[in-house]
Amino acid sequence: MRNFELSIREKSIVCIGFMGVGKTTVGKLLAQKLYRNFIDIDAEIEKEFAMPIPLIFETYGEKAFRQKEKELISHYSQQPLYIISVGGGAFLQKEIQAMCLENCVVLFLDISWESWKDRFQILSDNRPLLRDRSMDDIKQLFHERQTIYSLNHSTFQIDHFEAEEAAIYLADALKLSWEIHAPQR
Ligand SMILES: Nc1ncnc2c1ncn2[C@@H]1O[C@H](COP(=O)(O)OP(=O)(O)O)[C@@H](O)[C@H]1O
Ligand SMILES: O=C(O)C1=C[C@@H](OP(=O)(O)O)[C@@H](O)[C@H](O)C1
Ligand SMILES: [Mg+2]
C-alpha cells in the first residue's frame, strides 16, 4: 500500500531513539492503547536469523544485520496502522530515514544522558554495541546519535515517565492530533 492514500490517523508510527530508551516497551503498550498491530524490528530480525542479536553480530556481522533491518523496515513502513519499534541504529541508514519520514509518523523517544546512564547495567548484555565499551565511549555515541534522531515528526521527552505513563500520554496526544486533523463534516 502507498501512503499517499493514507490519512495521518492511518499512518504507521515508528518509534526511534537511543538503545534502551524504551522503544520496544512503550511501543508495545502504545499499540495496545490504540488497538494497533505492534512490530519490533529487532525481534523480527532475530526470528529471521533464528538467533539473538549478539550472535547475529558475531556470526554474520553488523552489515548483514543492517541489511535485514532495512528490508524489514522497508516492508513494514509501507503498511498502515502499525506501531513499529526500530533498533536505535536504524536511522543510521539514509534509506530507512527516508522511507519512515515519507510513509509514517516518526516519533522520537528522547532521554537525557543523566537518566539514561542509570539504565546501562540492565542493557549491556544483549546489545553488542554497548559491550566492552567505556562509559565515555558510550556517552560519545549517545551524543553523536542525537543528529539522526533529530529527523522526526514528533519528540517525546521520556525521562520522568514510567513506560505505562508514557504510553497513556502518547496515546492521548496522538488521538487529539487526529481529531484536530479530522476533516470537517
Ligand atoms: N519509561 C521507562 N522507565 C524506566 N525503564 C524503562 C522505561 N521504558 C523501558 N524501560 C526499561 O528499559 C529497558 C530497555 O527498554 P526497551 O523497551 O527494550 O528499550 P529500547 O527498545 O529502546 O532499546 C527495559 O528493561 C525496560 O523495562
Ligand atoms: O543502536 C543500535 O545500533 C542497536 C540498537 C538495538 O536496538 P534497541 O535500540 O532496541 O536496543 C539493536 O537494533 C542492535 O543492538 C543495534
Ligand atoms: Mg528495542
TrEMBL record:
<keyword id="KW-0808">Transferase</keyword>
<dbReference type="GO" id="GO:0008652">
    <property type="term" value="P:amino acid biosynthetic process"/>
</dbReference>
<dbReference type="GO" id="GO:0005524">
    <property type="term" value="F:ATP binding"/>
</dbReference>
<keyword id="KW-0547">Nucleotide-binding</keyword>
<keyword id="KW-0963">Cytoplasm</keyword>
<dbReference type="InterPro" id="IPR000623">
    <property type="entry name" value="Shikimate_kinase/TSH1"/>
</dbReference>
<dbReference type="GO" id="GO:0004765">
    <property type="term" value="F:shikimate kinase activity"/>
</dbReference>
<feature type="binding site">
    <location>
        <position position="88"/>
    </location>
    <ligand>
        <name>substrate</name>
    </ligand>
</feature>
<feature type="binding site">
    <location>
        <position position="127"/>
    </location>
    <ligand>
        <name>ATP</name>
    </ligand>
</feature>
<feature type="binding site">
    <location>
        <position position="66"/>
    </location>
    <ligand>
        <name>substrate</name>
    </ligand>
</feature>
<dbReference type="InterPro" id="IPR027417">
    <property type="entry name" value="P-loop_NTPase"/>
</dbReference>
<dbReference type="InterPro" id="IPR023000">
    <property type="entry name" value="Shikimate_kinase_CS"/>
</dbReference>
<dbReference type="GO" id="GO:0009423">
    <property type="term" value="P:chorismate biosynthetic process"/>
</dbReference>
<keyword id="KW-0067">ATP-binding</keyword>
<keyword id="KW-0057">Aromatic amino acid biosynthesis</keyword>
<feature type="binding site">
    <location>
        <begin position="20"/>
        <end position="25"/>
    </location>
    <ligand>
        <name>ATP</name>
    </ligand>
</feature>
<keyword id="KW-0479">Metal-binding</keyword>
<feature type="binding site">
    <location>
        <position position="24"/>
    </location>
    <ligand>
        <name>Mg(2+)</name>
    </ligand>
</feature>
<protein>
    <recommendedName>
        <fullName>Shikimate kinase</fullName>
        <ecNumber>2.7.1.71</ecNumber>
    </recommendedName>
</protein>
<feature type="binding site">
    <location>
        <position position="145"/>
    </location>
    <ligand>
        <name>substrate</name>
    </ligand>
</feature>
<comment type="similarity">
    <text>Belongs to the shikimate kinase family.</text>
</comment>
<keyword id="KW-0460">Magnesium</keyword>
<keyword id="KW-0418">Kinase</keyword>
<dbReference type="InterPro" id="IPR031322">
    <property type="entry name" value="Shikimate/glucono_kinase"/>
</dbReference>
<dbReference type="Pfam" id="PF01202">
    <property type="entry name" value="SKI"/>
</dbReference>
<comment type="pathway">
    <text>Metabolic intermediate biosynthesis; chorismate biosynthesis; chorismate from D-erythrose 4-phosphate and phosphoenolpyruvate: step 5/7.</text>
</comment>
<feature type="binding site">
    <location>
        <position position="42"/>
    </location>
    <ligand>
        <name>substrate</name>
    </ligand>
</feature>
<keyword id="KW-0028">Amino-acid biosynthesis</keyword>
<comment type="subunit">
    <text>Monomer.</text>
</comment>
<dbReference type="GO" id="GO:0005829">
    <property type="term" value="C:cytosol"/>
</dbReference>
<dbReference type="GO" id="GO:0000287">
    <property type="term" value="F:magnesium ion binding"/>
</dbReference>
<comment type="function">
    <text>Catalyzes the specific phosphorylation of the 3-hydroxyl group of shikimic acid using ATP as a cosubstrate.</text>
</comment>
<dbReference type="GO" id="GO:0009073">
    <property type="term" value="P:aromatic amino acid family biosynthetic process"/>
</dbReference>
